[in-house]
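[step 3/7] fold_predict: job queued, chain A
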Amino acid sequence: MSSAKVTNAISAFVHEEKLAFIKDLKVFLEEKMDNADDITDIIDEFTSTLIITKTKISKNTSSVGNTPKRTRKPTFYNHWLGERLRSFGGEQKLLPEEERVPKSNRMKIIANEWSNFKNNPDEYDDAKTKWEESSSGDEPVKKPKKKKKKDNEVKSKKKLSIHDDSGSGSDSEIEE
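[step 4/7] structure written:
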């Protein structure tokens, strides 16, 4: 906020100096010229168009929006949970409809599995060290991009021969 006040004070000072310079120019022209009334009227008209420009500085002057968002490396829990949800979903597909766990209840079951897994220090430490070795690296983590499904695929045109009752053949293009 103070920088806006300083900038406005400087621009007001510069404006006053310009007006004083123009006034001195008018006095000089009146002394040197016999008939300077037309010129001084034009200069007065010009000085009336000069305006002090005030600057407004926004409160958010940081370049936060310009910097790319940093992605955080996933934790072992994130890795384990993602793998377990995938495998649990695969297991559920093999079961009959009546025995399947609804998707809304899957996290409750997997949360219990996580607490049991974490309470077993040997298995947990082994899995975590394997994960740390496989994911070690100072590279920034890139999220895999999902492929968008196209509703309307590119349709190929095939030439088909259509025969009418008169026996003459005609070729036309038909889209599949």
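[step 5/7] annotate
The beta strands are 157-163, 169-175.
The chain has five helices and two strands.
exit 0
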